[in-house]
Amino acid sequence: MRYITAGESHGRGLFAIVENFPAGLSIDAEYINTDLRRRQMGYGRGGRMKIETDAVEFLSGVRWGKTFGSPITMAVWNRDNKNWQSMMSPLASEENPEARVRHPRPGHADLGGCLKRNMHDVRNILERSSARETAIRVALGGLCRRLLEHFGVSIQSHVCSIGAIESQVKATDIDDLTSISARADQSIVRFLHTSQDDEAREYIDTIRRQGNTLGGVIEIIVTGVVPGLGDYASYGDKLDGRIGQALLGMQAIKGVEIGIGFEAARRPGSEVHDEIFFDQQQHRFYRGTNRAGGIEGGMSNGMPMVIRVAKKPIPTLYTPLKSVDIDTKEPYEATIERSDTTAVPAASVITEAICATVIAQAYMEKFGHDSLEEMLRNFHGYQEQLRHF
């Protein structure tokens, strides 16, 4: 599977073209729209979420409710575009030099993008680098999640912390790992319990009044993955490397760890590596612990994948940081764009979609991608191989 996304934050819309996706998958827009609505949840969001009601539209590759092997084109239209038609017009006659954005924001792509592209209008950078782009990646992730359901894969997420507030309930406290997202969706900040919602609301409101922003830590848990996805033979095929790259490619993500992650560097080997056992009744290998987070040697090992990401605070501050005018080179306050106080709850939903995309690609590489029927046939054959190992 190959894909590309396109579109700007205030342009007509956001688009994805997906090639080599299996034929025969039943899919409807409402299935994907559920995740798009989840992406818009969470306390601390800004005014944009009051304007947009994100919904996907299939423009190609889906007929009568099923994929049929053609490239799939998906669109999420920007309702706010009607307020930006002149500013985002493709016509040279609409150009307005006075509307240029000249004060790059620290922590954003603004200055680096201007230097790279030799642009003297920060809007040419911020429109594409905006996290608004993740709406179409959630749509793509929904398509991949639907495929993975046929193979028993479940992808869940929750917020571990926002700023200085840590969730008092951990995933290890939950018996049914496939219920984690549903539990988190009940909380305004996607903690695993609503008992801290009032504390979190007050904290976020205080930060908002200060003109500041908050980041946080997110945990993704993937269950039902067969062992042997990814590869040990080539660094580019290692599953943990691909997941890490994809998550670090998401806006504002500054760190990724799998399993106990950095904690492994502080422990002796006997307290890091997961001992191997064999279940005679189920005729399968298993681990007594899961410190590796479901991936060893670049391959899935059949245990739940446990991935955590660190999201930095949003770089648009209503109490702006110091910057420089890119024309005059004089000191100036950074540009203020409409933004959120925190988007960590929304980001947790986006991380699910990104992991779904990477894992779906790995399943297609292992079991084929021409049709869902072919994939399932090959998958069942692999399961039989594992049973007789």
From TrEMBL:
Q: Which domain of life is it from?
A: Bacteria
Which reaction is catalysed here?
5-O-(1-carboxyvinyl)-3-phosphoshikimate = chorismate + phosphate
Q: Which UniProt keywords apply?
A: Amino-acid biosynthesis, Aromatic amino acid biosynthesis, FAD, Flavoprotein, FMN, Lyase, NADP
Pathway(s) the chain acts in = Metabolic intermediate biosynthesis; chorismate biosynthesis; chorismate from D-erythrose 4-phosphate and phosphoenolpyruvate: step 7/7
Query: Which CDD domains does its entry note?
Result: Chorismate_synthase (cd07304)
- Which parts of the chain span the membrane according to its record? none
- Is Glycoprotein set as a keyword in this record? no
Report the GO terms under cellular component.
cytosol
Q: Does the keyword Flavoprotein apply?
A: yes
EC id: 4.2.3.5
A biological process from GO: amino acid biosynthetic process
What are the recorded GO MF terms, alphabetically? chorismate synthase activity; FMN binding
InterPro entries named in the record: Chorismate_synth, Chorismate_synth_AroC_sf
Q: Which cofactor does it need?
A: FMNH2
How this chain assembles, per its entry, is: Homotetramer.
Q: What does this protein do?
A: This reaction introduces a second double bond into the aromatic ring system.
The record's family statement is: Belongs to the chorismate synthase family.
Q: What is this protein called?
A: Chorismate synthase
| The organism of origin for this protein | Desulfurispirillum indicum (strain ATCC BAA-1389 / DSM 22839 / S5)
